[in-house]
Amino acid sequence: MQRENLSSAQTLAILGGAAVMLSLAMGMRQSWGLFQPYMIKDAGLSAADFSLAIAIQNIVWGVTQPFMGALADRHGIRPVVVTGALIYAAGLALSLVSQSPLVFTLGAGICIGTAMSCTGASIAMSITSRAVSAAKRSVMMGLISGIGSLGLTFASPIAQGVISTAGWQMALVVFLGLSVVMLPAAWLGGGVDRVQHESYATQQSVGQALGEALRHPGYVVMALAYFVCGLQLVFLTTHLPTYIQICGLGPAVGASALALIGLFNVIGSFLFGWLGGRYSRRMLLGGIYILRSLIITAYFMSVPTPTTTLLFAAAMGTLWLGVVPLVSGLVIQLFGLRYMATIVGIAFFSHQIGSFVGALGGGLVYSAMGSYDLAWKSAVGIGLIAGAFQMTMNMRPTKRVEEERSVLVAASSARR
């Protein structure tokens, strides 16, 4: 089926399914930091154990993302996302019954990490880009990314509320219920498999597409800079609730901060999706990394209060997932749509190495030094460097894409 033949209802079902799937997957995953103090107390875990499991979650997500992207590109998105929803539920169930670091790492680390590569932003952006026209692509990727962040807005207050009244085990039971809702959402989003890929004269294999990407200097710069994005974000989601409690603020402030990040991420994702269709994506990406670093510096150098913490969360939320439509848009601009999920997956592997370092490094620094000072200063330093390099990336499409787009434009003009 051609994209133009989709009815409005079919398009809405596909986009709605992708948004709900992403919202639930990201919302629950980004709320893990709320469980840390309670699981350290009750489940036989240390701060290092918890941090290691979340770090493994992020590295497994990164390692498996290119493979899941390749499976989706080759065999269809629906089998990948439905399987991912089932694995997500299994990971939550294992975490619920865990009484040792090994079982917790298997559930929260390996299972959730694998599930995220099937249901997270990379696959959701691939669904969105295939379901809408090129003219609407950037703004719709921003919109779906933003809606996807709403999960954090409701998941973290729900989790903290249930933890406070009924315990962390019951909060994980609630999350299990939410994971069930992911199944029909994933099925609907997978309906995009009916839409044919863009047709180009040059036929590529997955290996050829990856080789082309890895030889492009601009893509390499973007992928390396993406490392910093993962490091900064996962350091905050994993360790901000603990840092807030160390500073004498109640756990409700941490939950509210995470919820506010999710709320303002809706605004930021839509904003940067819209801006990415009008201005230089590389400059916008570099600006996000630099602004994040400056805001982190201002927050951690001052004595946190509930007000400054919520302001910090709002500012960081605005700059949170706005990178997703920008990175996805750059990949489409450089290489086309056919192997988008695979190529974005490779870049995302770099992002998740950063996430691994942010989660584990923050825990190790705190365990060894009793403070997060070295961790946040390191995140700021490499963020400033990455932002500057991102602004210099080569944005020229490959020769193959330029030639194929010229042929398509000429054919379109001839039909008129």
Describe the structure.
The protein has 18 helices and no strands. α4 runs antiparallel to α5 (101-119). The model has no long low-confidence stretch (mean pLDDT 85). The longest helix has 30 residues, at 217-246. The protein has helices spanning 8-29, 36-42, 47-75, 77-97, 101-119, 121-131, 134-148, 150-166, 168-189, 206-214, 217-246, 251-276, 281-300, 306-318, 323-335, 340-369, 373-390, 399-415. It has 416 residues and is mostly helical. It has a single domain (3-194, 205-407), classed as MFS general substrate transporter like domains (Growth Hormone, Chain: A).
Main attributes of the structure:
416 residues, mainly alpha, Growth Hormone, Chain: A, 18 helices
